[in-house]
Specification:
This protein has 105 residues and is an all-alpha fold. The chain has a domain at 42-95. The protein has helices at 19-29, 44-95.
């Protein structure tokens, strides 16, 4: 056991097995299986890949947000006039009178 290193198999019979077979055997003799998360240090290549993926997603999100803004502005313009008319009608009903503007010379 003194020569045992991390990543090596303690039992010699495990050396000839495939990783899936090793996992199956260990699960069969284990009292239970627990999955836990851990922090893994990333290599420079992995960091570059993540940055590339992030930039693609950021650009895509930016495009979607621009479309969203454009659509909301169109909808807002469509709602503006009927909303003003509805407000004017509601005030007329509420106060039982209308506001009129006439020009006199």
């Amino acid at each position: 056991m003194a020569n045992f290193k991390i990543g090596q198999h303690y039992d010699q019979s495990l050396r000839t097995m495939q990783p899936s077979e090793i996992k199956d055997n260990l699960e069969a003799i284990a009292y239970g299986v627990q999955e836990k998360s851990y922090t893994k240090n990333l290599t420079e290549d992995e960091i570059v890949e993540l940055k590339d993926e992030y930039s693609k997603i950021a650009i895509h999100l930016s495009e979607i947000e621009a479309k969203k803004k454009e659509i909301l502005e169109k909808i807002k313009a469509q709602v503006k006039e009927p909303k003003q008319r509805a407000t004017m009608l509601l005030e007329s009903i509420k106060f039982k009178s209308e506001q009129n503007t006439d020009s006199y010379i």
